């Protein structure tokens, strides 16, 4: 009869994600100021607890022990979480995003579908993503 060949579906094409939307969703601040302050306080409490455990482990086992090093790493991570939470509340890119959306809308209305309009919109999105990328702790992604 013939030989049977196993069907292997093609791998889906890699669609680059909208980095700007991803970063904005990640940085999105709390609904209001009180919730934002509570999130900062919770992250600070977590950091202080981790740091206190680091101090206790260092006193009990010595600074160079495995337990002390593990608690020091946890304390560093908790500090980073607190730091990022503060940045997320302080650096709110809402005005930048609103301006970008307004500019896109204006260009689409007045510039039509020209290539210059598309290039201007892409350039602005890349610039805003570039400004927000360090706050999100991301490295620049090279798309091939």
| Low confidence ranges | none
Structural class: mainly alpha
Q: What is the number of domains?
A: 2
Average of the residue pLDDT scores: 75
Number of strands: 0
State which percent range the strand residues make up: under 5%
Tell me the major beta sheet. Answer: none
- State the end-to-end CA separation: 44 Å
Provide the gyration radius in Å. Answer: 24 Å
Query: Helix content range of the residues, please?
Result: over 70%
**Cα shape:** flat
SSE order in H/E notation? HHHHH
- In DSSP terms (H or I, runs of 4 or more residues), the helix count works out at 5
Key features?
mainly alpha, 144 residues, flat
Give a quick summary of the entry.
By secondary structure, the chain is an all-alpha fold. It has helices at residues 19-27, 33-61, 66-90, 94-111, 115-136.
Report on this structure.
The protein has 144 residues and is mainly α. It has 2 domains: 59 residues; 53 residues. The chain contains 5 helices and no strands. Helix 2 packs antiparallel against helix 3. The longest helix has 29 residues. It is flat, with a radius of gyration of 24 Å.
